[in-house]
Amino acid sequence: MNDRHVALVRAFFEALARRDLAVMERCYHPDVSFGDPVFQEVEGRDRVMAMWRLRLGVRDGLHADFGDVAADDHTGTARWTARYAFGRTGRRVVDEIDSLFRFEDDLIVRHHDDYDFRRWSKMALGRPAGVLFGWTPMFRKTIRDRAHQALDAASWEEVSAWPASGAS
Fold first, then answer.
1. For the chain, how big is the Rg over CA atoms in Å?
2. Which end of the chain is less enclosed by CB atoms within 10 A, N or C?
3. CATH of the domain at 43
4. pLDDT tens across 129-146, in order?
């Protein structure tokens, strides 16, 4: 057990629960990569944080509870629950998520979340759409493509809002 890494993962989830993006960002290594069933691979701290801003900006916000944190010198795990309203339908979603972490320089360099996509689609889309389509590769690709389009748009809006270099 590595107490520093356990404290780091706890700090990340406590910040997520408070919607404190600045603290979340400080937990991540600059070269962090994130993956889950929707955002399969997101690379770099700026882009990963843009993804979290999208997720925290959902209707009624994202509410997180966590537990079962464990870590050693190289890897860590946690279990957390995300509660939110899915933007397209307004339906309530409760995801049970298993997180895996890898550490470098006492920061999170890899964060992977896993949850049941089929179960998610039933909650997010309801019946019959979520039941009929939630398991199909085409449906998953559509959801992933929309998520990455939203991430690309959010990332571009953040970059374009920055002042030009040399501006005061």
1. 17
2. C
3. 3.10.450.50
4. 666 666 677 777 887 888
In a domain, 168, yes or no: no
| Cα 63 from Cα 120, distance rounded (Å) | 16
Residue 63 domain-assigned (yes or no): yes
Is 53 within 8 Å of 32 (Cβ atoms)? no
CB 68 within 8 A of CB 48: no
Enclosing domain of residue 124: 3-160
Of 111, 96, 17, the C-alpha closest to 64 is: 17
Domain total in the chain: 1
Given a cut of 50, is residue 92 above it in pLDDT? Answer: yes
Task: Report the range of poorest mean pLDDT among 88-92, 96-100, 126-130.
Answer: 126-130
Please report whether residue 58 resides in a domain: yes
Type of residue found at 17: A
What residue spans of 28-164 are helical by DSSP H?
Answer: 45-56, 117-125, 129-133, 137-161
Residue 167 domain-assigned (yes or no): no
Mean pLDDT for the stretch of residues 73-99 = 92
pLDDT digits (tens, 9 = 90+) for 30-59: 999 999 998 889 999 999 999 998 888 765
Report the phi/psi class of residue 63: left, alpha or beta, with left for phi > 0 and alpha for psi in -120 to 50.
beta
